Amino acid sequence: MNDADKKLLTEYLGECWHRPDAGSQMIKPHAYIGIPCSCGTVSYNARHASTNNRTFTTRNDTVDLYEAIAKKGKWWEFADYAGNQDTEHSVTEFETILQIFASIASWLFCLNGQGYEERCQMVADWIKEASHEGC
Known about the structure:
The protein has six helices and two strands; from the N terminus they run αββααααα. By secondary structure, it is mainly α.
């Protein structure tokens, strides 16, 4: 996942994508002054940007994104999109609707403990696609 997608997801969560401010007053920052971030946090560590951003590779990142989607009232739209992204299963291999739902839910929530980054990327792709609807 690239930084642009990580930034998109971070902002979707309502959080700050930490980056040092490139303001002219900070061209030659001194260690005792610190480096202001775009969120207003002042860091004395030049690595502030890379050390404080989410990686979108963990269960917590994935679940936080799903919660944000639900809180924004977009869960059904996302669930429809996600169901079409599940290429691991074919509807014909199941006997009941419940089996289909259980399989997609297991895949979507990475119940096998793998695939968190891929699901976070799927959220980024959905956000990018949804933002262009109706244009």
